[in-house]
Design brief:
This protein has 6 helices and no strands. By secondary structure, the chain is mostly helical.
Length: 137
């Protein structure tokens, strides 16, 4: 068997997984795409192990290790996705960025607390928090 056949198949599977990671918005589909990419790597490991006729079968051993890591990754990933879905009501990856971003109106008064008169900034801070609460609801 030629090495090119499984290598080309692995490249196609890896590209499909990469497209899924970059283009999908659903977190479960992103996890499935990561699994596709790991399976492409496993295919390459086994193909090169057969092609090199390794006596220790290191490629197959690494494949089993990768399968174990992928199983743990999918278990933890699904637990995180379910927790996010329960809190947010959606598993949309684009909406997950809102958890890390901070509102500029919340941090502005604290940064300029000792820079003169900040009563106007402090008056607008609750309005900024209210706008953020409305946007995320």
């Amino acid at each position: 068997m030629h090495l090119a056949y499984p290598a080309v198949l692995a490249v196609l599977i890896f590209c499909a997984g990469l497209y899924g990671v970059l283009a999908r918005r659903n977190a479960i589909l992103v996890l499935m795409s990561v699994e596709l990419m790991l399976n492409a790597v496993n295919l390459n490991l086994v193909a090169f192990d057969v092609w090199l006729r390794d006596a220790l079968h290191a490629g197959q051993a690494l494949t089993l290790f990768t399968i174990a890591i992928a199983a743990a990754e999918i278990g933890i990933g699904l637990a995180i996705v379910l927790a996010v879905y329960r809190n947010r009501g959606s598993s949309d990856v684009d909406r997950l960025r809102d958890t890390a971003e901070t509102d500029a109106a919340e941090t502005l008064p604290d940064a300029y607390a000792d820079a003169g008169d900040t009563t106007a900034d402090q008056a607008t801070a609750p309005a900024g928090k209210a706008k953020k609460a409305e946007a995320t609801a």
